[in-house]
Amino acid sequence: MRESGGNILKLENLVQDLSPTTKLYLRDHYLTEFSADVVRVEYEGKNKIYLVLDSTLFHPKSGGQPSDTGIVRDSTSETCIDKVMSFHNVIIHWGTVKGEIGRKVSGRIDWEKRSIIVLVGFQRCLLRLQNHG
Prior knowledge:
- This protein is of the alpha+beta class.
- It has a single domain, classed as Elongation Factor Tu (Ef-tu), domain 3, CATH 2.40.30.130.
- It has helices at residues 11-15, 111-132, and strands at 22-23, 33-44, 48-53, 55-56, 70-73, 77-87, 90-99, 104-109.
- Strand 5 (70-73) and strand 6 (77-87) form a beta hairpin.
- The longest helix is centred in the last third of the chain and has 22 residues, at 111-132.
- The protein is globular and about 50 Å long.
């Protein structure tokens, strides 16, 4: 379904009636690739999409930490994931798609960016402990 008239898709409508996303990043912090089933796709304009998968490694923006980025692809499409959000325990991927998305996809997070985010977060925790210790 494509949005018409430039309306911004409401996240609550996107996740309505969906089960929570399985958060693979909570199971193994060092995974970089995964496979998933496509649950919902909503287009914003010609090639921007909101993509909901049954499971994901992409960590959403939270707690002042930026979201993961990376690629989701199948045999007929490739989506560059620019932003990841969480709404009612459903993870929403937003990005630019080339091609038509199928029912099963594979994904790869940008590990270099993730490792920098983790390192900076760890350093912030150490500074807080030092200032309160």
